């Protein structure tokens, strides 16, 4: 016979002990714990989310101040407030926010003309506009560059007016190739004035402003100065200006670049220059231009 099976544990086996408890390293009571931050997601059109409170699931079709409109797969629309942790994206809580607004396109060019978005530059005309120096060309490009590209007008510089007669002869302006020239300090009786008179014709227009240098065509208020200082005759004007204003006189090129950065539009320039440049553009692109 088999011995009876004992239902008692052997004397060397004690009763089972209590299970060990596992504690979380964070002993902060749940009611004191700060809610975990949830990511912010831009409510872009087409984004599919679920409203946490109602379970309504749909795609964003519109996001306005404080609300978002969802459309479900049956075409039903519902409007919900943009509340923190108010939506689920792929099962995870998120806060929907309004998408960043696209920067508004300027409606005017720096010259004040009506802007033409995405306009292609026109093939360059045969006509040209010449200015005295590099600084003049850079200023004209800064303010009128968009207009000139649309009109197909190229601006070049002379490095002074002494060679202007030879340049005009070589250019040979005509009905289909007009030439406009902008000259500094064009005052009757000056050397510049006499040269301008000698080359002016029906197809070549020379205009000028009264300033000694193109720097003076920038309004002093745009540069934070009261006025352009007077420089004694016989002294280099740019060097004298820099010394009088405490600017580095040994590097007038760097000073000019700093001045140019302060020019944002035609509002920073004197009217005497604005009118002359507009006159040249009209002349070169007029009915007799290419």
From TrEMBL:
Coiled-coil parts of chain: none
Matches recorded under InterPro entries: DUF3097_C (IPR021447), DUF3097_N (IPR053883)
Region (Disordered): 1-38
Occurrences of domain DUF3097 (ranges): 40-99, 128-285
Name of the protein this chain belongs to: DUF3097 domain-containing protein
Organism encoding this protein: Streptomyces nogalater
């Amino acid at each position: 016979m088999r011995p009876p099976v004992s239902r008692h544990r052997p004397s060397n086996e004690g009763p089972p002990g209590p299970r060990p408890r596992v504690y979380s390293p964070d002993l902060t009571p749940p009611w004191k714990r700060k809610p975990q931050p949830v990511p912010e997601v831009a409510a872009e059109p087409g984004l599919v989310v679920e409203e946490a409170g109602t379970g309504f699931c749909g795609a964003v079709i519109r996001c306005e101040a404080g609300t978002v409109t969802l459309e479900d797969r049956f075409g039903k629309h519902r409007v919900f407030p943009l509340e923190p942790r108010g939506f689920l994206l792929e099962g995870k809580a998120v806060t929907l926010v309004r998408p960043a607004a696209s920067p508004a396109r300027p409606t005017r060019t720096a010259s004040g003309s009506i802007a033409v978005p995405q306009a292609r530059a026109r093939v360059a005309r045969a006509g040209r506009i010449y200015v005295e120096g590099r600084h003049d060309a850079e200023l004209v490009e800064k303010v009128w560059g968009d207009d000139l590209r649309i009109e197909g007008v190229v601006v070049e510089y002379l490095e002074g007016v002494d060679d202007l007669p030879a340049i005009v002869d070589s250019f040979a302006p005509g009905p289909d190739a007009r030439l406009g020239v902008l000259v500094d300090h064009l005052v009757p009786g000056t050397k510049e004035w006499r040269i301008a008179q000698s080359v002016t014709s029906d197809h070549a227009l020379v205009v000028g402003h009264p300033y000694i240098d193109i720097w003076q065509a920038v309004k002093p208020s745009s540069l934070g100065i009261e006025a352009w200082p007077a420089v004694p005759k016989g002294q280099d004007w740019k060097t004298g200006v820099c010394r009088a204003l405490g600017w580095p006189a040994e590097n007038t090129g760097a000073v000019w670049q700093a001045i140019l950065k302060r020019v944002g539009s035609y509002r920073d320039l004197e009217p005497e220059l604005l009118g002359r440049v507009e006159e040249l553009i009209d002349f070169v692109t007029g009915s007799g231009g290419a």
